[in-house]
Amino acid sequence: MEIPQEVLDRVRGLPDTRPLYYEDAYKKSFDAKILEVVEVGDKLYVVLDETCFFPEGGGQAGDIGRLSSSSGELDVIDTQSADGVIVHICKLISGSVVKGEKVHGEIDWDVRYARMRQHTASHILFSALRHVLGVERLVYMGVGIGDEFSRIDINYGKPITPEQLEKAESISNRICLENRKVKTWFTTREEAERLYGSKLGVTEVTPTGVVRVVEVDGWDVALCCGTHVSSTSEVGLIKIIERYRLQKGVERVEFTAGVPAYRRFEDAVRSMSSISRLLQVPVSEVEGRVKKLLEERRTLKERLEKILGELAELKAERMLLDAESIGEFRLVIREFRDLSPKEIRRMATYITSREPRAVVVLGSVYEGKPYLVCAAGERAVKVGINTAALAGGAAEIIKGRGGGAPKIAQAGGIDAKKLGEALNYCKGEVLRILRA
User: Fold this and answer.
1) Backbone region of residue 364 per phi and psi (left: phi > 0; alpha: psi in -120 to 50; beta: other values)
2) CA 338 – CA 422 distance, rounded (Å)
């Protein structure tokens, strides 16, 4: 949430806010003095002399919570930084607050702690990916820390494979179980780069412009402004959700950690148990049973396709027998219900392959939408029948699009009530050409 320019103008020149969240990331409440209050629209922008509220930075959203004084109460909906001055973006709940008075602040600890877990998890997973991918100079191209799930974008030229993701996830959770310390301290960028060099996956400064080292003992080190847990065991679980190519040379990995990760595992176990009961096999045999069912389904689908093909040919033979004779030519016009475009195309193709003097126009309403297939045999095409033109004209009637080649074309639309009219249009055009 951006800070309006008029607020920036008012807070410029104020002393830097003391960031209590760096002194103790677990501090949930505090008392402070209001240095400035600016009202813009329905929001109040409040600056304190010190705060536990973390301002947006390093991909981590600003804290939310409450501020209260003897005269009023505020709902903090976001926290931002303006060159070292931390601005609490608030909605007034009751009363009023004024510059100079004391306030008591309480951050939304559930939200903050979830983000601390997610942020530390991002560092653990980053180094796990660096290890698995074998890229020493792996760097963050972007990061987003959320309450439920997060993401890291990394410089990698190839798609990360499922096997690599699985290995990185396994390593990450091992690091969590090892209860490694997470240490933070302030230094200069030059000193950090001298000490760690290429090991620094990210080299960002804090919202207040200070360089802060975050080190997962013996595993990961970075310059990071976010809030973190004090040991890897607090992260709990890490679960990779998915990966995809963000752009050339950049892979995005989405993941979750802590309680949301536990819920995903819980849901997966519940689903697997349910599937196990439905298939009437132990959980350990579910995969094999599903593979067998898929193979059976494939076989049945092939058999069904064969039967439907034979049935379509029988229908086509019957339609050819009942076709209207126009001189030497045979005209087949039919409307169906619930036959797919593939099925009517199969019948139309079969008829024209059997009879080069045939012209076929078949329509069907399938899943609520009108479809139409036009086909013409070799002899019919030679005398001027162009099925692409027929389909194009029919498409306008059913409010859709059509196209194809002179021998076969199709159209689809949205106005099923006009399918009969479209078929009549095609019949009229065919009769006009054949009787010319």
Assistant:
1) beta
2) 17
Identify the CATH assignment for 5-107 out of 2.40.30.130, 2.60.40.420, 3.30.590.20, 3.30.530.20. Answer: 2.40.30.130
Query: Are the beta carbons of 208 and 18 closer than 8 angstroms?
Result: no
DSSP 8-state code for residue 384: T
List the structure tokens of 172.
């990450």
Structure tokens at 49: 């002399």
Pairing state of beta strands 358-366 and 329-337? parallel
Is residue 327 within 8 Å of 379, Cβ to Cβ? no
pLDDT given at position 29: 98
Residue type, 356: P
DSSP-assigned letters across all residues of 340-368:
-HHHHHHHHHHHHHH-TTEEEEEEEEETT
Distance from C-alpha of 377 to C-alpha of 385, rounded to nearest angstrom: 9
Given a cut of 70, is residue 136 above it in pLDDT?
yes
Q: Are 156 and 250 in contact (CB under 8 A)?
A: yes
The structure's pTM equals: 0.74
- Output the CATH code of domain 113-267: 3.30.980.10
| 74 and 68 Cβ atoms separated by less than 8 Å | yes
Domain coordinates in residue numbering, the chain:
5-107, 113-267, 308-434
Nearest CA to 426 out of 360, 364, 368 is that of 360
Contact present, 25 and 228 (Cβ < 8 Å): yes
Q: Quick count: other Cβ atoms within 10 Å of Cβ 283? A: 13
Tell me how far apart the alpha carbons of residues 139 and 128 are, in angstroms, rounded to a whole number.
13
Joined tokens for residue 358:
């045939």
CA–CA distance, 404 with 388 (Å, rounded to integer): 5
| CATH architecture type of domain 308-434 | Roll (3.10)
Residue-wise pLDDT for 358-401, tens only, equals: 999 999 999 999 999 999 999 999 999 999 999 999 999 999 99
Q: What is the pLDDT of residue 195?
A: 84
Inform me whether the pLDDT recorded for 209 exceeds 80. no
Measuring CA to CA, which residue among 102, 121, 17 is closest to residue 62? Answer: 17
Is residue 267 within 8 A of residue 241, CB to CB? The reply is no
Q: Does the pLDDT of residue 208 top 90, yes or no?
A: no
Contact 91, 72 (CB under 8 A): no
Give the total residue count for the chain. Answer: 436
pLDDT of residue 211: 83
